[in-house]
Amino acid sequence: MTDVIRVLVVDDHELVREGLRLMLSRTEGIEVAGLAASGEEALADLERVDPDVLLLDLSMPGTSGLDVIAVLTTRGQPRPRVLVLTAQDDQDIVLEAVRTGAHGYILKSASRSELVGAIRRVAGGDQYYDSVVAKAFLRGDQRQREAALLTRREVETLRLAADGLTTRDIAARLFVSSSTVKSHLDNIYRKLEASDRAHAVAIALRKNLLG
User: Fold this and answer.
1) 3-state DSSP assignment of residue 107
2) Stretch 131-143: mean pLDDT
3) What confidence tens digit (pLDDT) does each residue in 147-177 have?
4) 36-39-41 Cα angle (round to 5)
5) Which positions ≥6 away from 97 have C-beta within 8 Å?
6) Selection from 206, 151, 210, 209 nearest residue 183 by Cα
7) pTM for the full model?
8) Predicted pLDDT of residue 137
9) Which residues contact 90 (CB under 8 A, 6 or more apart)?
10) Residue 52 CB-half CA count within 13 A
11) What domains lie within the chain, and their CATH numbers?
12) Which residue has the higher pLDDT, 139 or 95?
């Protein structure tokens, strides 16, 4: 990481993007390296922007923030650190973001100083969860965290694969790209230690992961 933290802001609301750009541009040691209005745009811009931190909203049409994190996870290192910035404090969503690979989670109700501190913590290699999110995370007991091996989107993907749909058909059904579906499948194979779709489906059914 360089002395200046390069941030890519990803949010589908223009007012939020511009507000964050204006606020962070006035912060010493932080540079807004790019703005993206969607998950697809963020993934396309990563190589050009080369950010240290992805400041990422979760609720976006098409490729969601969770989908973006899943794709980044399959790319291995080095990859930008991911700080989720969202209005959602639901326990299940918090747990899913952490399982998928987020390095931090902060609510949009946080103060400027809290957000800046979170960016610096995450960029420095630490994790950061604001107090509201930390309480939601702690409410999820160990049994629940162990049972939730696959994320919600990964379960949806595997269910469709079990129904015999092709990668292209799954992408159309979930309104994401084929590459995103492939990333979900790669994560599923890794988590379940499966060799292919049929093997993954068999393991998931045995573990009752598909509901």
Assistant:
1) strand
2) 59
3) 456 888 888 999 999 988 999 999 999 999 9
4) 50
5) 58, 65, 66, 69, 84, 105
6) 151
7) 0.67
8) 59
9) 136
10) 18
11) 5-143 (3.40.50.2300), 149-206 (1.10.10.10)
12) 95
